[in-house]
Amino acid sequence: MTVTAERSGRFGAYGGRYVPETLMTSLIELEAAFEAAWKDNTFRTELASTLADFVGRPTPLYAALRLGRDWGGQLFLKREDLTHTGAHKINNAVGQALLARRMGKRRIVAETGAGQHGVATAAACARLGLQCRVYMGALDCERQRPNVERMKLLGAEVFSCEGGTRNLKVAINEAIRDWVSGPDETYYLLGSAVGPHPYPTIVRELQSVIGIEAREQFTRREGRLPDAVIACVGGGSNAIGIFAPFLDDPVALFGVEAGGDSPEHGSCTLAHGRPGVLHGAMSYVLQDADGQITGTHSIAPGLDYPGVGPQHSALKDSGRVTYAIETDETALSAFHELSRVEGILPALESSHALAFARRYLGENPGRRVIVNLSGRGDKDLPSIMARTKGQAALEGGHHAR
Amino acid sequence: MPAELDARFAALGMTGRKALIPFLVAGYPTRERFREVLRTTAAHADVLEIGIPFSDPLADGPTIQAASSKALSAGVTLDRTFAELREHFPKDGPPLVFMITYNQVLAARDFVARCRDHRVAGLIVPDLPFEEAGELRAQCQAAGLSLVSMIAPTTSESRARQIAAAAQGFIYLISVAGTTGARGEFAAETLAYIRKTRALTDNPLCVGFGISKAAHIRQLREYADGFIVGSALVNAIDEGRERELLTQLRAACG
Lengths: 401, 254
What we know:
- The complex is a heterodimer.
- In chain A, helix 4 runs parallel beside helix 5 and helix 13 packs across helix 14.
- Chain A folds into 2 domains: 157 residues, Rossmann fold, CATH 3.40.50.1100; 217 residues, Rossmann fold (3-Layer(aba) Sandwich), CATH 3.40.50.
- Chain A has a 6-stranded mixed β-sheet with strand order 3-4-14-9-10-13, sandwiched between helices. In chain A, strands 7-6-5-8 form a 4-stranded parallel β-sheet, sandwiched between helices. In chain A, strands 1-2 form a two-stranded antiparallel ribbon.
- The longest helix of chain A has 24 residues.
- Chain A has 15 helices and 14 strands.
- By secondary structure, chain A is of the alpha/beta class.
- Chain B is built from 12 helices and 9 strands.
- In chain B, helix 2 runs parallel beside helix 12, helix 10 packs parallel to helix 12 and helix 11 runs antiparallel to helix 12.
- Chain B has one domain: Alpha-Beta Barrel (TIM Barrel).
- By secondary structure, chain B is α/β, with parallel strands linked by helices.
- In chain B, strands 5-4-3-2-1-9-8-7-6 form a 9-stranded parallel β-sheet.
- The two termini of chain B are 30 Å apart.
- Classes of the chains: A alpha/beta, B alpha/beta.
- Chains A and B meet through helix 1, helix 8 and strand 11 of A and helix 3 and helix 5 of B.
């Protein structure tokens, strides 16, 4: 069953627009502007040429033969890590930046978790001569330091958000607060498939290029459809991007949430949340009995979020997509395996999808799966090195005994 | 069921007085001080607005955000707020209005019925725009509560007409685009916007965001029916001069 947004921006019971009245006119204008742009050949042609020449699309579908053999099946990687700026986020950032320019907006604000959306937005804005401010949780600024530097080099202003949980959730709060203070001049370039209508639809449409390419590349190569498509889910933009073109196919779809260091400390919104409203949309939300949003933890900043895109909530309820959990530990071990066996350093977010692929192929030998390798792991070096050092010290201690 | 807020504004309208609507963060700054502030404020208010703190507010400025966050850390919840009001809100106090986010409304069991039982006359749900409000509006109407609608400077005229037509109790007029918080004088464009909205509806119009002193009320009183004062009152509570501020605001409302 295909779940697309109706005019009201609903995916079943989910989605909608739950925002302060001050933002409503901007959202209605944005919806009309996107619909018009999406039907306009000039816009689509410019987007296509930007994706080809600036982003570097199409990205390869890489057959990871050695690792697939180790894991007992055939593993294909959709190499979003090879895009300009190193993650799928750029597909959405260039599309929305072109839309903002078309709408006559000169000032862009964005939030970022892992920093990939911030870097992508900063790059897209630099290229179009737009002013750019990025909000990022203070914790994420620390653990994704290289991306903070990249954003600054690309001309963006980076605002470290000290409040509350100091992660993606706080960055979105601050970006919305900025936007509400000047919605006529400011364009909010939201990076995930979350937020009020029309954002979840805009982001899905702009990210669907991943799934359209992957489906075409796989069928051309293998002469059939894959058995399964696997992607990590924080807000869920890389997942909805690769899932969307497969929704009507007999292909198993798996979204992988971050389990953190223990089941109760993770960011498993679909597994452990319940329907509610966060950041402008009705969707599953991690919250307490009073409706206060609860803190999350994941080693992958891009998955460290107590909400999820509304279409994922609908796809969970309909059963079309199965949502699974991988922990910090299983994701890290998949990170190391891909690095050593295939020579690719994946992002910690994407490593969650890889860890599930390993589990899936173990239980279903011989299957052919596509994993959306949504980003590259260079940004994660500080936290991986810190963790590896910690483990080495621990193991050293054991040896000494 | 006749709504209490309608009766209150009808009575005020006959005297020509403007409604003073002070805003308190539930449980702020401490349990004891809140009880004291609640009594003082009730004595000066025509309608009293109480904000239920939320972990991730989108429309609150720094002052109310900090107060909410402090109240949350001190363990303030909706249940505890109901209990405090039951014990400490004066029997002859003004109508109460809750400001609460939609996620908290969804999470609370029998919310509208419990509000009615605790003499809450109205709800302000800042992240529930007109289009999404149908169900809660109907529930409020059935229980004799008013779901207060908001209009912002960015609201188009046709949209403002729709909102005004469905309004219950009073219309909350957001004075400027942005978050809550004390500001300087109001610009000419703000006056023009309030005047334009005045022409669209006979519903009571109450102005909020940036009303911090008596001079603001005197500047705007010709165009509006009431004034909501939040951040400035929180600041005054911090400095122990809430009675002084409320007296001045009361005098400006006439």
